[in-house]
Amino acid sequence: MRGLPYVAISDPVQRSHGLSRRVGGDIYLAHLQRTEFRFRSRRSGFDSSCSESLKVPQDSLLLCIIQCLFHSYTGLRPKETVSFCFPPFSSFRRQDVLTLTPWLAPIVWEGTFNSEILDNAYKPLNLTIGVTAFAIGKYTRFVGRFLESAEKHFMKGYRVNYYIFTNDPQAIPRVQLQPSRRLSIVPIKKYSHWQEISMRRMEAINRHIAEMSHREVNYLFCLDIDMVFYNPWGAETLGELVAAIHPGYYKVPRSQFPYERRSFSAAFIPDGQGDFYYGGAVFGGLISQVYEFTRTCHMTILADKANGIMAAWQEESHLNRHFASHKPSKLLSPEYLWDDTKPKPPEDSKTRVDINLGKENIHNYNKHLKE
Q: For 24, phi and psi rounded to 5 degrees?
């Protein structure tokens, strides 16, 4: 091992900025030996190797890592050396967009991952993915299309629990779900102002995690109910703590981000700080990380409320404050949070989710309900 160049290993299993990781009393190391990638366990002797380009795609690294961790946790050991043939690195590379943050977190765009490799790594883990969405007042009309489109595109082949928070359970339509999926209705109070509803979202999610969903799901995504899925949303989005780049600000300079600039707010971000502007309509990660994230945001919201302050963009301002100092381990490109009222940019090769349904879409959706 001496003198060999190491390969940095990163999320989604764990954020691993070091060169090795101790798991279950074992130490896993990744390194390159000339043109061969090797991943092995010191204790068990589990070893995988493949002779390919030195520029190994991140998804291929993760496949080796996750498979090794899975065998370690379950006590299983393969009888023979396991080899993985890596696709050419060029098939995972895009030079027209930013694909890595300064803190080495991946930014997920179409063309930067291989779904088959990721599914081969994650599906043996028997994960359950949770989704929260709020349908308060008139927003109950979006539930049907949200669920129907999610059933077609969201985490296909995985178990999924939908948690719909609503003040009107009777207004939630019945949607046919796949056998591995279920819908839970979470009653919630309706507030008179939408700003108050927005501010209460973090509190409601945090409480639900503590009381129920921490026992039911491994990962949790918190989404807006007026989203429509148009293309696959899969395992490429799984990570320790995941944020989405806001489609309205990914091309503008940081000085124009609508951060909270008042220093007396708990959501304050000074000039010159911050990395991206993140949308509040999408965030997620490991259930434990989402719990800590929502708890922190709820506490800063309460601090502002005690001082008679409402941040510029309510919970989204507090979300951006948190991510400015606690970097997300994975970023989703605007493909995962596109606004259908805006023209599609050339970089956005595959819009996966549209949000903020325009009048035409609402009309067509209501017509569909009547039929």
A: 60, 35
